Amino acid sequence: MMDRAQLADFLRRRREALQPEDVGLRRGSRRRTAGLRREEVAALCDMSTDYYSRLEQARGPQPSEQMLAAIARGLRLTLDERDHLFRLAGHSAPTRALRTEHVSPGLMRILDRLADTPAQVMTELGETLAQTAAARALFGDETRFEGFARSVGYRWFTDPSARDVYPSEDHAAHSREFTADIRRVHAKFGAGSRAGAMVSALLDESPEFAALWAEHEVRSTHTREKRLQHPEVGVMDMQCQFLLDPEQGQTLLVLTATPGTESYERLQLLTVIGTQDVGAAH
Questions:
Q1: What's the CATH code, domain 105-170+219-281?
Q2: pLDDT tens figures, 144-188
Q3: Which of 58, 75, 92, 145 is exposed most, by the fewest CB atoms within 10 A?
Q4: 4-88: which CATH architecture?
């Protein structure tokens, strides 16, 4: 059963324990609230202030597991705290495993400090768990997808709009990279894993993937140089940096451009667009 009173108390105490600097926010001179404001936590969790406030006031509905996962990330909870949150809300704690969709507080702190850079945390299967505003401006909100569509590799072969961020002349190379990346995860976890089920679905749905899969090509999938495009700023030459979290089985992808170049100027403009989009959303 959901313990509304204890859930409300836990949320309030964790919110008050977080400081603006912990999540990449500036501390204003007039701030009087202990810790973060409710509207700030709601924005970090991608939910309405009213919904979050009702949970803290012990009068909200039972949150879904997906909503609880978002709250755990927004409040920068540890795995033990996340499990406690799930139990208070009347759910079983997620199964502990080497690979988890819970982003560690340390990785979230790094992401918070990359507010002006396209960066996102992804699972080994290419599922985006958290994004900066600049990453959302470039890729769109990749955390909204469900099922196999959560994987960027699956979307690449089944959703034509997934390719819009890359120039068309680079599509063939990216198809091979995505196939090799999926093959690596499939080999690691086996045919009975979620990766195996996704491969079966792709073989049925995408002739292009089936043809590339049949070639059994093995290659390094972490290309350091990429060209990306945005309808408002144009094509950018980007450098990709990867920070691996082996305990969580996650990767922090950071995209940068060389200072002084046209791509750098376009990236700065993209950052402004991302900030405006986030402001409008909240």
A1: 3.30.450
A2: 999 999 999 999 999 999 999 999 999 999 999 999 999 989 888
A3: 92
A4: Orthogonal Bundle (1.10)
